[in-house]
Amino acid sequence: MGQAIDYLPSLPQEHLPQLVVVSSFEKFLVRDLESGIETTFPLSELVEHLELFAFLAGYDTRHQFENEEDVNLAATDLLARLHDSLEDSGYNGHALRVFMTRLLFVLFADDTQVWERGLFHDYVTLKTHEDGRDLGGALGLFFQVLNTPDELRQRTLDEDLLRFSYINGGIFSEPLPIPACNREMRARLIACMKFNWGAISPAIFGSLFQNVMSPRERRALGAHYTSEQNILRTIRPLFLHQLEADLEGATTLPALKRFHERLGELTFFDPACGCGNFLVVAYRELRRIELECLRRIRARESRSDQMVLDTALVVRTHVGQFYGIEIEEFPAKIAETAMYLMDHLANRELSTEMGMYFVRFPISDTAHIYIGNALRTDWNQVLPSNKCSYLFGNPPFTGKKERSEAQRSDMQHVFGSSGGVGVLDYVCAWYKKATEYIGETGHTLCAFVSTNSITQGEQPPVLWSAVDLAKFPIFFAHRTFEWTSEAKGPAHVHCVIIGFSPAGRIAPSALFEYPTLRSAPTEKKPNQINGYLVDAPATLAKKRRQPLVSTAKTAREGSKLGDWKHLTIEPEQIEEVRQDSIAAKYLRPLIGAEEMLYGLQRWCFWLREANPVDLRNSPVLRERLSKLRERRSQSDKLSTRLMADRPAEFLETRQPLSDYLFIPCVSSSRRQYVPMQIYPATVVIRTPSFAVEGADLSIMGQLQSAMFMAWVRTVSGRLKSDFQIAPGTVYNTFPFAQPDDSKRTSIEEAMSSVLDVRSRYDGATLADLYDPLSMPGPLVAAHRELDSAVTAAFGRRRPKTDAERLELLFERYTALLSSDMLPLSTSQTTRRASRRRAS
Question: pLDDT: is 334 or 632 the higher one?
Fold first, then answer.
């Protein structure tokens, strides 16, 4: 075997064997050069290993992969390597994009009987030199032949070129510069041709585009290409389930024929189509339904001879029913090409079923892909809204903080004077534009994949106020799940899918819950789906200045120091500071989210009421205050400069006067609960965490419960994946239960048990205690008891999941908004006082 392997480098690339076989007449040793796998067996077992040699009998054994995703990833990697070789040579830009699109089509065609199988492979390997010097010219001539009708081709062409089908469709019409190829480019093209392109899914085309983009370009475009699984999660409840139900309901021949005619009248529009993944998969599924319809028609017509059926006259569906908008040229071209290839695959399946060979080459119909900015384009110019059946897609995932100036301008163009653009992700503009496009009296059903941030925190009230859920209700939704992509380096984002339509067009049909981010969804029939994707009233939890429940204590943000570390002391500085007896008496513990969670010790000087004599006589204080005064005086902010003459004070002092509950501003989403702690007034709290002064164990117990965590997961903003727990959006909007004395006592006792359990673990920080991997069993059990006590305070229903908890919470939230228990806002109080003075 070693001798055989040593011989291989002397062979040309195209002559390399698939297997190397060595035999001693008693034993066989077989090495697969593609996989590197070696197999040894005796002669007597040869019959049991015949699959190793199946390719000799014409069976396709190339690239056996465990699943479809592996097939797609392998194919995109091969093409990306060829792309890189060409780009490195200086062949780039528009020419390279068109060139790669053409190769995609040709490689697919060579394995799917657009012409004789392997004909392109033979042309390259037999008609070009091994060093690749003539490959560019040979491909240029080849593309020209594919763009020329048979009757117009030169009679002196190579006979092998004449065997290729005329394609048309604009794919090969544009003249391109001839690439100067070399041995490496030819070898990489041959490696691509050895792959079985008939085994790939349509998502390959989006994956290829993503593979040849750098991560920076990918972020700039918001390009996250969708796996077929996620596409089907969108289009199944949007239209596939209904079409399949309609087909099942067509039990007579006339009904089947009417249904078949209707399939050819539907239109599909993706206004952020990218490489066309949504359009391609939707077309494949439409053709699948049509094929099943034709089977049933044929069965009822009792046609025993399939050959009498004129397939070309039977097919109603075609790529011209599909429309898209894409801002970049390369993915738009790939989308068009992918639709041609999917059409060909569907036609092959139809040919097998009907017993007649049916192809649509040369191409006479095309998908309508408009190249332009979807947010600046009049969608009615692409497809009039009254002719649009379904609108769907995967708009860019660009978050509100990552938007470019151009994207911010796009959003202002779409939202106009409705405002709120500053807090919205870029994808929200597609929702707004979609509702304007379909209109309140339209018939179009819509669904978009989005980042889950548009259903959390500040965004839902802004988005759904602009879109108006009453006029465009959500009829199906997938709650948060982890994004999967068939491309290299896929996006790590959490997504939702939202289906909506004009009011009265369709009733709520499905709400999909995910027990974990990567698990399969469970489906429920909702009564109503609100902007947080919960089966609950459409009320939105808008930011508030005061707590929703009048009995809840006010939450205030901690003090803003603005001290450039001159009023704060790190652990390594504390002994030096304590040597100054005057400075030492003004030391107070300082607490923020990090200090509370990780048990860190920091201090600050509390000098608000300090004796001026002490400030002058303390070397430590005098030096620090002097430096702080100078630093503030140089600030760009007027408010900071004004505080330069008061260096002994924080920029903003908001210290509680009595014991308070500390609530961190940020907490990991991995934790089951947001850790909180009670501190005395002598511990100084710093911004952006906040304090609830005078909060008792009943209030703390509700905030440390699963009910509050369900609210946090829904209405809080995000810092990356962490919860942002702001008073206005989370604490003030929480619909606290108002338990009777008995239930209040139960909550207080359960909360006391939680605190007791915490205290048993010496040296353990709150971060240790609430880490999901290290949270002690007794603490988990104590929280379960607390959850039970809090749940009982909310009523008779005992919710077990977040979705059930949120249904109860939003019902209570809606009731509180209209009750006398709702505290007056500052503006309401002012208006009422004004009216009293006027009267």
Answer: 632
